[in-house]
């Protein structure tokens, strides 16, 4: 039988293990070239410890208090403050207004805005109870309107398109969010994983019964510690439940769940927003920042500098602050990577 003293000791060990995970992650992301042969092993070790931690935390929770079944509504509403995988940033809802395909008289975004205000007056906006948070010009003679909700964007789109005043509106479709699950048993097939999540996790099972809810595997890969990690696409409500839970029971294991965001980073020109397969830019070396492919570089570099941040400093606005360049172009601490990550969040519909 587990005693309060045992629980206290287990909790202390978990805190220590959490520190080890953070240390392993920081070392694996270090710019020290001498660590290159060991990075994958360090990352695999970190993943393995995290999966063990998830199981240990679940057992301690069960031993320290009687578990009460949470309803679907409770799981969605109650955020776990310690789960850093939950996206706290509210999803932005936008409506993009531009010239109609058959109207060539509009020459810039200011004219588009004038047409918009002529077609949809402030009185009509207030009569419909619409809330427009921001409005500003963007490229290709267009205007971007940020609204409080998706429904407000749809109403604007409908009103603008039926006005027939030489402009048209579109509401971009957001992607469904994705989950990354670590420590899944390697012998479980992809279709079995979804069935296991549904049958072993009641909150997920209850939600999947509702119309429009889904969960499907999009990618899986074996790791070096005898298990595999899985990427799943989910409906916003299922995503909320899984990230709030923090871990899911799958087969014999309790697996760690993370939010998964795919930031597109080109390995040819090193810019963000696209991948090498579709890149038309000249190659840039990630080691010496010269105009050749990284794999063809023979220069011995002792100090790594981020070419993207160098470009940013060279082309910054007057009086703008310089950004730090003393890091790898692939560093998670890169200011431009963080900016790209922030923008990528807005491509997904997290349901709030």
Give the strand line-up of the largest sheet: 6-7-5-9-8
Radius of gyration, taken over Cα atoms and rounded to an integer in Å: 25 Å
- By secondary-structure content and strand pairing, the structural class works out as alpha+beta
Portion of residues in helices?
25-40%
* Low-confidence sequence ranges: 72-86
Q: Describe the biggest sheet?
A: 5 strands, antiparallel
Compute the number of helices: 11
Mean pLDDT score: 82
What's the shape?
flat
User: Secondary-structure element sequence?
Assistant: HHHEHHEEHEEHHEEHEEHH
Tell me the count of domains. 4
Residues in β-strands, percent: 15-25%
Number of strands: 9
- Cα distance spanning the termini: 43 Å
GO molecular function, one term: zinc ion binding
InterPro entries: Znf_CCHC (IPR001878), Znf_CCHC_sf (IPR036875)
Structural description of this entry:
InterPro entries: Znf_CCHC, Znf_CCHC_sf. Residues 265-281, 284-299 form the CCHC-type domain. GO terms for molecular function: nucleic acid binding; zinc ion binding. The model is unreliable at 72-86 (pLDDT under 50). It contains 11 helices and 9 strands. The protein has 4 domains: 4-49, no CATH class; 93-170, Alpha-Beta Plaits; 178-259; 267-351, no CATH class. With 352 residues, the protein is α+β, with helices and mostly antiparallel strands. Strand 6 (215-222) and strand 7 (227-234) form a beta hairpin. Helix content is 38%, strand content 17%. The strands form 2 sheets. Strands 6-7-5-9-8 form a 5-stranded antiparallel sheet. It is flat, with a radius of gyration of 25 Å. Helix 7 crosses helix 8 (202-208). The chain has helices at 4-28, 39-64, 72-77, 109-119, 122-127, 150-163, 190-200, 202-208, 236-245, 307-314, 335-345; strands spanning 93-99, 132-138, 142-147, 167-170, 178-185, 215-222, 227-234, 247-250, 253-260.
């Amino acid at each position: 039988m587990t005693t309060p003293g045992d629980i206290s000791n287990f909790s202390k060990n978990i805190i220590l293990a959490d520190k080890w995970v953070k240390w392993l992650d920081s070392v694996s992301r270090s710019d020290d070239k001498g660590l290159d042969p060991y990075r994958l092993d360090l990352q695999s070790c970190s993943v393995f410890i995290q999966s063990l931690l998830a199981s240990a935390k679940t057992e301690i929770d069960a031993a320290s208090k009687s578990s009460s079944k949470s309803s679907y509504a409770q799981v969605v509403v109650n955020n776990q403050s310690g789960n850093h995988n939950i996206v706290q940033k509210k999803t932005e809802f936008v409506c993009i207004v531009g010239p109609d395909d058959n109207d060539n008289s509009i020459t810039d975004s200011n004219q588009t805005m004038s047409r918009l205000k002529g077609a949809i007056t402030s009185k009509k906006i207030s009569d419909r109870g619409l809330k427009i948070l921001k409005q500003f010009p963007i490229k290709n003679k267009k205007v971007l309107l940020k609204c409080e909700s998706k429904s407000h964007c749809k109403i604007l789109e409908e009103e603008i398109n039926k006005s027939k005043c030489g402009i048209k509106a579109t509401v971009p479709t957001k992607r469904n969010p994705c989950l990354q699950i670590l420590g899944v048993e390697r012998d479980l097939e992809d279709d079995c994983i979804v069935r296991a999540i549904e049958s072993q996790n009641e909150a997920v099972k209850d939600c999947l019964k509702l119309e429009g809810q889904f969960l499907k595997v999009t990618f899986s890969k074996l790791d070096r510690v005898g298990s595999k990690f899985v990427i799943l696409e989910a409906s916003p409500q299922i995503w909320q439940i899984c990230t709030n839970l923090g871990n899911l029971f799958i087969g014999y294991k309790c697996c760690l769940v993370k939010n998964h965001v795919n930031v597109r980073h080109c390995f040819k020109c090193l810019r963000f927003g696209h991948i090498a397969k579709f890149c038309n830019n000249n190659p840039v070396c990630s080691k010496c920042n010269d105009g050749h492919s990284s794999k063809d570089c023979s220069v011995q570099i002792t100090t790594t500098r981020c070419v993207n941040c160098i470009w940013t400093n060279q082309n910054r606005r007057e009086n703008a602050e310089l950004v730090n360049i003393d890091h790898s172009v692939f560093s998670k601490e890169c200011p431009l990577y963080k900016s790209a990550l922030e923008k990528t969040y807005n491509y997904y519909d997290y349901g709030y």
